[in-house]
Design a protein that fits this description.
This protein has 273 residues and is of the alpha/beta class. It is built from 8 helices and 14 strands. 34% of the residues are buried.
Length: 273
């Protein structure tokens, strides 16, 4: 086992990198990630140690022995159905807790309802939806937000991600829920030039959001849901928010792992909801 200490804002990126090394699992404990390898995983552990970066306040410990544990059982024991914005989210191995629901199995892709930014994005998205809406989900991850929009009555939803593993997971979750979300691997530039959506949603870290925010706003007609930013990044986010008729209608925040995550709903002028 290795201990990776890092600011919470770095966790999503580190989780993706650690997963690509073939770990047995990664456990998030506050600002620390516990990374587990097989006894034959010396090379993977060596590569994990290379993730240390003092400039980003990321440190990696020396390997530590751990007792034999049924990790799949431990991992599953920490997951349970959650009700967010009136929608139940559950893993496939948990019994149904209510309707309406989504079945989302968290794999390597981000988005299971266990992270504050996903919960905040879901609540704002579900509160802003109208039955005729077309929804664009930027950085779809597990597909949870696009699927939730369809479950809540949106007319159509499109999700995309630059990570092919995320798209594979989203395709699996689409099949689990029998919902017709459209998915592709790529970026905003792959959309048809005239493609426009009633609602755009992006649950992204700030450095991922900033480059695509102007294009996302230009393709969104009524409501923008932005999540995945920290309270400490508020000034940079405010400076990057679209003008030209957009205004903040609602903001939510939640503390997790010692950090405060924020999400906001922006509406275009002429829509007071």
């Amino acid at each position: 086992m290795l201990r990776v200490a890092a600011p919470p804002a770095e966790h999503e990126r580190l989780l993706a990198e650690l997963s690509s090394l073939g770990t047995l699992g990664v456990e998030e404990r506050g600002a620390e990630l516990l990374v587990y390898f097989t006894s034959e995983g010396a090379e993977a552990a060596r590569q994990a140690k290379a993730l240390a970066d003092p400039a980003r306040r990321i440190s990696v410990s020396e390997p530590e022995p751990v007792p034999d544990t049924d990790w799949e059982k431990e991992w599953r024991s920490g997951l349970a159905p959650r009700c967010i914005g009136g929608l139940w989210i559950r893993p496939s191995f948990c019994p149904s807790a209510g309707e309406p629901e989504l079945v989302i199995d968290p794999q390597q892709a981000f988005g299971s309802g266990e992270h504050a930014s996903t919960r905040l994005a879901l609540e704002l998205l579900l509160g802003a939806l109208r039955p005729e809406d077309a929804v664009l989900d930027v950085g779809t991850g597990s597909g949870i937000l696009a699927l939730a929009a369809l479950r809540a009555g949106a007319a159509r939803a499109l999700g995309f991600d630059t990570d092919p593993i995320a798209i594979e997971n989203a395709v699996e979750n689409r099949a689990r829920n029998a919902l017709p979300v459209a998915l592709y691997c790529g970026g905003l530039e792959a959309l048809a030039p005239r493609a426009r959506f009633d609602v755009g949603v992006a649950n992204l870290l700030l450095h991922e959001l900033l480059p695509c925010l102007p294009a996302l706003a230009s393709r969104t007609k009524r409501a923008l849901v932005l999540s995945g930013q920290l309270e400490s990044e508020r000034a940079r986010l405010e400076a990057a928010l679209p003008g030209a008729g957009w205004s903040t209608a609602r903001e939510l925040c939640e503390q997790q792992s010692g950090e405060t995550w924020i999400a906001r709903l922006l509406l275009h002028e002429g829509d007071s909801r």
